Amino acid sequence: MPTHCTPRIDDAGLEDRFEMLLARERRLYPSMVMTVIGSPRSRPTGAEDKLTLEILEPALSADDVARQAAGCFLAGRCDPDDDPDGAARLAAGCSTVAAGDPYDEFGVRARTVVEAAMSLILRGDQDLGVAALRALVERHDAQTGAEPLAGFYLAQTGDPSGWLSMLAALRDKEDPVLRLRAARLVIAFVPHEGRKVGSETVDVQSALTALSKDKDRYVTEAIPEIQAEVDAARASLGST
Questions:
Q1: Quick one: which H or E segment has residue 7?
Q2: Of the candidates 9, 55, 144, 201, which lies 20 to 30 Å from 32 by C-alpha distance?
Q3: Strand partners, 6
Q4: Is 177 in contact with 211 (CB distance < 8 Å)?
């Protein structure tokens, strides 16, 4: 009989993994399940009931990048029912992915490395997970496009060192999709506003203000919603 995987999205003991970030992941979870089972365009209604260990494990080594990334995301956010070894197997699969070279294949699988690393952190292996994320942001660029996500996850562990890579993406002159994707992730840096990272200070507001004047309407039209979310995060955390 298939082993059902029950959603488990919590702070994992990480002080800077606040409720608004958890709510975002809960909304994302069903679509990730549908991607893993091979129906990314299907309605995700009841998706939580469809995820089994037998479906999730193979996804961690899938050739399809989207399916593998979704599997790596889910592996740290669910628990296999009635299988004491299932969680360990998911962690082992994530370890293999996180140890990969994010710059191999022209960076195509960088996001899978990032998702696997965060799932390791959520499963209690902070050393390997954090090291994999830091390896992506230490170049202070956005070469693969996955660096902002790595910084987003690192910030949740209390480490704002991904801010320079985040800035590189926010200021990218060629790719409005990358700028907007990064903008949607700056919320994780709200707890770190005012901290120094290299020669820069974490300043979420300045970053959003600059994007509100972006040359691409695609970006500027999204900023008010992002600003409102950031303001709500500040209020919930007691920030000013």
A1: strand 5-7
A2: 144
A3: 79
A4: no
How is residue 29 written in tokens? 């979870």
Lowest mean pLDDT among 83-87, 105-109, 157-161, 220-224: 105-109
pTM, two decimal places:
0.95
User: What Å distances lie between residue 87 and 80, 94, 119, CA to CA?
Assistant: 6, 11, 11
Token pair 């998702």 in the structure block, residue: 115
Q: Is 194 left (phi over 0), alpha (psi -120 to 50) or beta?
A: left
Question: 207 by DSSP, 3-state: which?
Answer: helix
Q: What CA–CA distance (Å, rounded) separates 34 from 50?
A: 9
Quick one: tokens of 63? 């050739």
3-class SS string, 183-199: HCCHHHHHHHCCCEECC
What are the tens digits of pLDDT across the range 127-172? 999 999 999 999 877 788 899 999 999 999 999 999 999 999 999 9
CA 44/CA 49 separation, integer angstroms: 10
